[in-house]
Write a structure and sequence with these properties.
By secondary structure, this protein is mostly beta strands. Helices cover 8% and strands 48% of the residues. The chain contains 1 helix and 13 strands. The strands form 3 sheets. It has a 5-stranded antiparallel sheet, with no helix packed on it. Strands 4, 8, 10, 12 and 13 form a 5-stranded antiparallel sheet that branches. About 3% of the residues have low confidence.
Length: 170
Amino acid sequence: MKRVFILLLLMFCWSISSFSQNGQYDVRLNLKNYDCTSQELQIDIDVRASSVENRFRIAEQNYRFTFNDNAIDSIWIVAEGTLSGFISDTGGAADFSLYSTHNLTGSLAGKISYNIVLSGGDGLLIETEWVHVGTMGFHVANPNALLDFGWNMQADFPSTFISEVTPSAS
């Protein structure tokens, strides 16, 4: 039974490695850890600009994913990544960002809503290198069921939303 689940897990990793939205940014899900004894799965969320021309300062974020709720019975945030708390781009207070505590508000059966709010500042500059958003934990209730993770794109409701800080006019 564990071999079947590991095979399904590998298929899952292959199928959800990276997503792109409107050519502006890419989102990636990576398997971080799976503990066979506790049936706990950990997945990292990463984001980047899709090209040098599409670099942007990231503000509010709402990463939305679907999953098979017959396979998973609980989700939680294991750790917040780079987009957490106070961040200084330049090492000084002139260029800073303050991000809220990450939350799963709005998550329902079969849908994950991973949220971050820019509480103040300029927003972190997102370039073409992957930036770690956070790590989600899942309890696998049925290892024989397909996990069936999917990213909600613009055509899906509710869609994933990542906003950009609009520069103020001087």
